[in-house]
Amino acid sequence: MTSYAEELARDIRAGLSSGQKQIPSKYFYDERGSRLFEEICRLPEYYPTRTEMAILEEHAGAIMEPFTAGDLVEMGSGANWKICRLLDAAAQPHGAGIRYVPLDVSESALQAAAEELIRMYGGLEVLGIVADFTRNLDRIPDDADRLITLFGGTIGNFTDAEAAELLEGVSALMRRGDRFLIGMDTVKDTDLLEAAYNDARGITAAFNKNVLNVVNRELCATFDLDLFDHVAFYNETSDQIEMHLAARQAMAVEIAALDMVVEFENGETIHTEISRKFSRERAIRIFEDAGLAPQRWFTDENGWFSLVELVRR
Ligand code: AVJ
């Protein structure tokens, strides 16, 4: 098994030696990055979180109606307010009959989430699993009916190949009686999309630049955050928001732990994130390719976000 430090070193070396420089978006989420992301979720321009929450408020009853007992699995954890909407709508009160099974890379995040939920729901059992859900789906227990959830539009951060791999992985472990509830951001007006990733207060800019802090700290690098601009735009050809960090001037940045110097031209960018937006047609295609069949689509009145209920075909 490769450690976080080894993986980061490998990803940064490869990403910053390629033609289009890149840093994987998973490195955004150190402590400060996670805090900034939470702040993004409360921004007026950032519609996805609020919209997904409104969908859950409205449809939690319908989502939970076929699920009277079993494992409520969450891929990634930390957003208890989404799980709470589902638990509140369960047939039995206080989470009775349900075991909550979150998978997350962070043991402390799992611990905190579990403690809070156990305090709130006296009948709930919790089994936290320290695991990267893009690799360790095999750790999900299979001795009960399961409602597997992937909230927040996380699937949008994956390339087509990565998304296909994840969906196939989930599909492969599903049996009759299991359901998969996945959140997806949808294709919409470009101005709305671009505003959500270029907020007026500059929180998304700080979130984007913070990935350079992560590299500075973990790999003894010398990135000067003031010498990079936050750039986010909608690529209409590939239906995705792209985030970049653009060098304000030519410079050389040392990464001591990699024994490496990275040269930047004026204006050159590091690609830090894609956030795909899905049309219903495209979503259906990737579900079907993974052997999954959509049963119900839960969406808001504007169609800005979707929660899709999938079963194995
Ligand atoms: C956490 C992946 C859903 O893509 O919208 C927010 C991350 N990036 N603002 C997204 C993010 C910039 C977010 N996801």
Automatic annotation (TrEMBL):
SUPFAM superfamilies: S-adenosyl-L-methionine-dependent methyltransferases. GO terms for biological process: methylation. Its EC number is 2.1.1.44. One of its GO terms (molecular function) is L-histidine N(alpha)-methyltransferase activity. Pfam families: Methyltransf_33 (PF10017). Keywords: Methyltransferase, Transferase. Residues 9-310 form the Histidine-specific methyltransferase SAM-dependent domain. This is L-histidine N(Alpha)-methyltransferase. It comes from Methanoculleus frigidifontis. The lineage of its organism: Archaea, Methanobacteriati, Methanobacteriota, Stenosarchaea group, Methanomicrobia.
